[in-house]
Amino acid sequence: METPDDWLRHGYPWEIRRVDKSVIVKFGGYVYFTTENGRFVAKHEGYEEVLAVPYDVPIIGYGTDTVNTLRLWSAEVKNKDFDFQSFNTGDYTKAVEYKYSVESISQVLYPDDTTQKGKLLRLKQEYFFVSAGVQSIMRTFKRWDTQFMISINMWQYT
Fold first, then answer.
1. Which one, of 2, 5, 28, 32, lies nearest residue 123 by Cα?
2. pTM of this prediction?
3. What distance in Å separates the CA atoms of residue 130 and residue 126, rounded to the nearest whole number?
4. Cα separation of 67 and 86, whole Å?
5. 83, 89, 106, 125 — which has fewest CB within 10 A?
6. DSSP readout, 66-106?
7. DSSP 19
8. What is the rounded end-to-end Cα distance, in angstroms, of the chain?
């Protein structure tokens, strides 16, 4: 029988929250195409924004000086505003419902997907982690590529 292992209940000292490396994951909405300044452009509108906050954990290699980084992601609401209007009208559940629905994306991995809600959450998880990871990789690549091109240009003129 599986039982939860709440090993993070007291925190994890090696886990580093990297808010500066956060990315936005967009769910739903619609895409349309337009032309701007003679270029074909895709526009995404009407989506739900979820903030993907990375937590980096150093992983030390065995018998080596190499330290890799394990990047874990936490789903958080982008806008921390509390739904005060729902709370004042007595709908206490609705006041916090959105926050918990967003946080549930990264709260428990591999939820039971025998129900429609479980399948939807599992799909959201898969999309969330892939989107956050790819955005992080692309940001690193673009920064590296820019630095590489600057160093090539400097080398040409020396």
1. 28
2. 0.77
3. 6
4. 48
5. 89
6. -EEEEEEEEEEESS----HHHHHTT-HHHHHHHHHHHHHHH
7. G
8. 67
Q: 14 — phi, psi (to 5°)?
A: -90, -5
Which two structure tokens, joined as six digits, stand for 22? 């956060």
| CA nearest neighbour of 15 among 51, 53, 61 | 53
**Digit-coded pLDDT (tens) for 95-153:** 688 888 899 999 988 889 999 999 999 999 999 999 999 999 999 888 887 776 666 66
Residue type, 15: E
Report whether 26 contacts 127 (CB < 8 A).
no
Listed in sequence order, the DSSP H helices in the chain are: 84-88, 92-107, 116-156
As given in the structure block, the two tokens for residue 138 are: 């692309």
Best CA proximity match to 133, nearest among 57, 18, 25: 25
Cα(112)–Cα(120) distance, integer angstroms:
11
What are the pLDDT digits (tens) for 38-51? Answer: 999 999 999 999 99
Residue 68, token pair as written in the block: 């890799």
Q: What single DSSP character describes residue 36?
A: E
